[in-house]
Amino acid sequence: QSEILKSSQTLAERLLEAYAGRGTPQLAERIGATLRDALGAHEQCSVKARVFRDQRGFIGSNAGNEIADFVVRERIDPAASPEVLHLAKDGALLEAVRDSVLFKWVERLRRARTLSDRRTLLEYGFAVLIKGTGTEGPVRAEALTAAIESVNDHESELIAFLRSTVLGGAQFGDPRKPANSSKWSLVAKTAVRRFVQWLAKEDLRFFFETVMENTPDPHGRQAFWNAWLEHPRMVNSCVALSTRDLLFLRSRGVLPKDAAFSRVSGGADDVSAFLLRFSTATGDLIAIEFSQVGNAAYFHHGEAFDKRVGGLHRPLYDLSRDLKNKSTEIRPPRGLSAHWDWHTTGWQDRFSSALSLLLR
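-> structure tokens emitted (360 positions)
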């Protein structure tokens, strides 16, 4: 309480370090009030001392949670917390703080009311929990699950942020590609499906509104497929660009930086494709739409298509040999024409009935 000590943090901080790591609850109870009173006399004190003074429990059993909440609120990198918080690098208290950061971040993310607050928390979470050095796989996966679940389907700005951040990082990558399956194995299946659905919706938007910007869609194919992207059996999507379309998009500067696409060649090299994969109890179904008029939709048996072509996200497809291969094609169910034809009256109802039958 002396004038000298009021201008110095040394004694109070040493006492905190001594008793926080080694003291018993009974000892903490005895010295707690005295230390708090002493710290209250300091106008300028360390983060560690402020937390103790303000939360009234630095040396209690809840210290890790309280400091972790402060770390998240102030957006402090847990990796830098020993220096920032003046904690012992190998101490039990620092370990408790790091163990609690994910929990406190998720708690704050779920309570965030505004889009701006959630964006800030998402950026912090990706920086320190998902991309942070030394983050363990289960923590990273739980953080990504919480991030995906925190975003509503109509919040296009946050979806775009998640999409570009995840696809552009080495931690997870595109969940639709087999090479990344192990990275996504610990992420909740519901979150993976939701993220894949967002990717499929962006693929569809990119295909019809960017690739086909100058091609009319009088039959409403975009709206039809957009509704089917909500189907629980939709599991994968892909856009394959023709040489002409790719050059055109690049020349206009409208090819998104995070655009994931395959290529398609054959014919006049001017037909691009949009591929969807549905999983059923009896085998998968591949649906393919084309960008140019006069190309009917194709539906393929999934296993036959995989064996013949190699599945979705191949670097290159051949228009005739792969995407329009008759040997892997599913013929339209009875009641449709000989081909999957968009141009006949009432096609939406017939297609919906046929797909519902095929996807049982």
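The two ends are 77 Å apart (CA to CA).
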